[in-house]
Amino acid sequence: MIMRHEDTAVVHVRVMASLGGWWKQTGDAVYLRNGIIERIGSTADVQAMASSRNAQVLDFASTPEATCYPAFMDSHLHLDLYGFSLLHVNLNGETSLDGALERIRLAGRPDNGTWILGDCWDDELWSDSPHRRQLDDLYPNSPVVLNRKDYHSLWLNTAALKAVDLWNSRPFGSDLVPCDADGPTGIVRDAAQDWAFSRIPAPRLDERFAALHCAISKLLSMGFASCCSMDYDIFPELQALIPAMSEEPRIRIWQAVGLANLDAAVSLGLRSGFGSDFLRVGGIKAFADGSLGSRTAYMEESWPGAPGNYGYHTYESVNWLADRFRKADENGLWVWVHAIGDRANRETLDAFEQAGVATSKGHAHHRIEHAQFLHSEDVERFANLGIAASVQPSHLDLDIGKLKTVFPTPHPRSYAFRSLLDCGVELDFGSDAPVEDPDALKGIAFAAFRTRAGELPYQSEQCISVQDALTAYTVAPQSSVGLFGQRGNLVEGQDADIVVLSRDILGDNEPLALRSTQVLATIVAGDLAFKA
After folding, report:
1. Domain residue extents for the chain
2. Which contiguous run of DSSP H or E holds residue 18?
3. 205-487 CATH, one of 1.10.10.10, 2.170.150.20, 3.90.79.10, 3.20.20.140
4. Shortest CA distance to 68 belongs to which of 214, 225, 254?
5. Of 429, 433, 435, which Cα lies nearest the Cα of 447?
6. Taking every annotated instance into account, which residue ranges of this chain make up the domain Amidohydrolase (predicted)?
């Protein structure tokens, strides 16, 4: 249970604020009152205020390098999926098929017909291919459904394929439901995955509550006070669960609404930003294409080694997208579009331009989510159209290997953070959790250094500074949801969302120091929500 205090003093810390685009120390203590930053100054002055008002005092004198920053915001994660990934069978990081099967076996789920769910397998790390028969050997009776790490493919056993009507029924081609001589292989991709999900029993409310609680607890332990949640089909459940958590530590959630619900949202009069301090309507979430890992991102040129495969797009036409974007914008709804391939990004920008929308109302922005492959002229179009780039630097942890394998000649604008910044595009950083850990320090390290242990940086010309990466987790994403000047910075009068780190990361010139930094405390709306 959270301990609420009207007044809290944080002392013996470096207090860092973004002033004129540069991070500077403005004091060594901060005083919080009723969820607002009331005073930034010296420890002596703030301690005197705390004493006169009987305030809670958080003293970090035992950690001489303790530093306060604005609490992090994850601009793109899947809160529901992430929570369940913490409860399901988890195959993250497993480097062999045999190891994955052993991890599934050790999870000890009974073979009694109950659904068995799991997450984060990655066949890019395996020398053997997954097949339904391997799961059948473990579970001949219970349906098994395992999400690939990019959440654009599933691995199912025979019981699951039959349960979701993908065994004999063939509504999809062999690209989305591959088959061999014995029937479906058990791999199900993209649109066929959506078909499968629609036939899997929904979790009970108590199960969803447990998953949400796990996700929020982990996020708070990593210094997050806000997130944009892309699981757009769980708004009703969140409306019930978030108020029920009023006595527990919470984060501020901006919840996406699915594009299929745009007309309903407009008819109900919903607007982006409607809601409470801890649950607000976010953007309309649309999809333009697939993913890198599944080779379904929509590309200008065919995927190397796969002539004729350009990936695929999910929209009827650019005109159709433009109509949807225009309707959302005219009715006060932001647009958040998943686009990974260079052609998907180009045509999404075409649709924004055709719709005649630029910077959204209320100083917020429409966004393209991921924007992994771009052409140079399209980088400039982001800036000209006022579209923010909501990107996930931690994806580089695994994607560096994929990029080197798939593109013998590097794609010139993959993860083009420096190019986007140089053109004046707002970068909003996130994790896409559970695809990657929602670890802001890991994200900052990959944005600034673009390297894995023992390797040279990947396209080092796209590295950005630690200062800029910190801004992309704090000031910029709050601006993207219309809260510039209210939240996302440590300035008197702003909302008291704060992370305390074990050291000042701004001078780091190598990733190991960044990654070894600890989160000492997270404060949300002036309340201590996590303490190490």
Report:
1. 1-71+489-531, 79-198, 205-487
2. strand 7-19
3. 3.20.20.140
4. 225
5. 429
6. 67-527
What are the phi and psi torsion angles at 354 (to 5°)?
-65, -35
Residue 417 gets the label, from left (phi > 0), alpha (psi -120 to 50) or beta, of: alpha
Nearest to 476 by CA among 1, 134, 73: 73
- The SS3 of residue 501 is strand
Profile the chain (532 residues) by mean pLDDT over runs of 10 residues: 79 97 97 97 97 96 98 97 93 94 94 95 93 97 94 94 89 88 92 92 89 96 98 85 86 96 96 95 96 89 91 95 96 96 98 83 79 95 94 94 86 93 96 95 97 92 97 97 96 98 94 95 97 96
Q: Rounded distance, CA 146 to CA 457, Å? A: 32
Cα–Cα dist 532/159, whole Å: 44
Q: How far is residue 283's CA from residue 292's CA, in Å, rounded to a whole number?
A: 24
Q: What are residue 284's phi and psi, to 5 degrees?
A: -80, 120
Separation CA 215–CA 244 (nearest Å): 16
- Smallest CA-to-CA distance from 91 within 134, 157, 155 is with 155
CATH code for the domain defined by 1-71+489-531:
2.30.40.10
Query: Diameter of the chain by CA atoms?
Result: 79
What contacts 507, CB < 8 A, 6 or more positions away? Answer: 466
In which residue are the tokens 């791999």 written?
187
d(CA 130, CA 427): 36
Q: How far apart are the first and last CA of the chain?
A: 16
d(Cα 73, Cα 388) in Å, to the nearest integer?
Answer: 15
79-198, which class in CATH?
alpha beta
Instruction: Identify the sign of the CA torsion 325, 327, 331, 333.
Output: negative
DSSP string, 136-166: HHH-SSS-EEEEETTSSEEEE-HHHHHHTT-
Q: How far is CA 304 from CA 80, 178, 370, 424, in A?
A: 34, 20, 21, 32
Residue among 459, 382, 449, 456 at smallest CA distance from 422 = 382
Two tokens, residue 508: 């780091």
